[in-house]
């Protein structure tokens, strides 16, 4: 497996994004043919590289691409039943707060 975006920390141009997508597709093809994706729980060089470059692509999409076909209409409102469930879930429980306090903090 040849790593193309080995030192990349971000994708900032559409050209690099397109190359990264082609690279991920090629990696998936190669990994599938070699059997590296047979096990869904597999942790190997293919899955790590596909995940790493896939995250770079996802970050680019969030930052620079506006997907018109998945925009939510401003007129759409949740039903009364859904609003009541959403309201009940928005209040944090004591158990949830305790569990959050026990989680390790991430440092970036």
Put the structure in a nutshell.
It contains four helices and no strands.
Overall description:
The protein is built from 4 helices and no strands. By secondary structure, the chain is mainly alpha-helical. It has a domain at 14-69. Helix 1 (14-34) packs antiparallel against helix 2 (45-64).
Topology, please?
Elements: H1 14-34, H2 45-64, H3 80-90, H4 94-102
Please tell me the overall pLDDT.
79
Largest sheet: none
**Span of the ends, CA to CA:** 29 Å
Assembly state = single chain
Structural class: mainly alpha
Helix content: 55-70%
Q: Tell how many strands the DSSP assignment holds.
A: 0
User: How much strand content do the residues show?
Assistant: under 5%
Task: Please give the count of helices.
Answer: 4
Q: Using only CA atoms, what is the Rg?
A: 20 Å
Order of helices and strands: HHHH
Which regions are unreliable across 5 or more consecutive residues at pLDDT < 50? none
Global shape: extended
Which characteristics define this entry?
4 helices, mainly alpha, 108 residues
